[in-house]
Each structure stands twice: as structure tokens, then as C-alpha cells.
Amino acid sequence: MALAIIFDSVGFGEWFVLLAVVLVVVGPKRLPSTARKMGQYYSKFKRAADGFKRQLLDMDREIERAEREAERQADAAFGIPGDESKATPAFPSPGAPAS
Q1: Residue span of the structural domain in which 45 resides
Q2: For residue range 52-97, what is the model confidence (pLDDT) as tens digits?
């Protein structure tokens, strides 16, 4: 996604100048190996970033699970039923007929 932002913001002329500078600095003989190394570094960076993102999402899920568990334990400790939608009210609603 970051590359899409970079590719959209850089025009053809800018890419041409950048490629010419890289060609002059690196040289035509070492350009393929340098490009391969850069691709490997990018791949390692992407894997590390994905792993970090996965860890953050796992931590978030773990926190949510702990919150649900704490709520369940608190409800059980105070005798609150788990599903209030099935609980019958103690008093009839104002519009309900008396039995």
C-alpha cells in the first residue's frame, strides 16, 4: 500500500531521473545484484512489519477476551443472568393486561 502512494505521487520524468542516478552511482554491472538485495531487504522489512501488525492484533483480541471474561465473572459473582433478553420482568409493563 505504501508503494502505491509512492508510485502515484512520482511522475515518469522523476522515475527516469532516479533510475539514471542509480545507474550512475551503482553502475550497470552491479545493478542487478543491487536490485536483488534491495528486494530482499524490502521482503524482510515487510515480513517484520506484518509480524508486528499481527502481534498488535493478537494483543487487542486478547484484551477483548479478557474484558468479556471479567464481565462474565462479575455477572456470575453478583447473580446477574447472562442473557437479559430472556429474563422476565418483575413488574408488568404499563400497557400489558393484568393476569
Answers
A1: 29-76
A2: 999 999 999 999 999 999 999 888 888 776 655 555 555 566 665 6
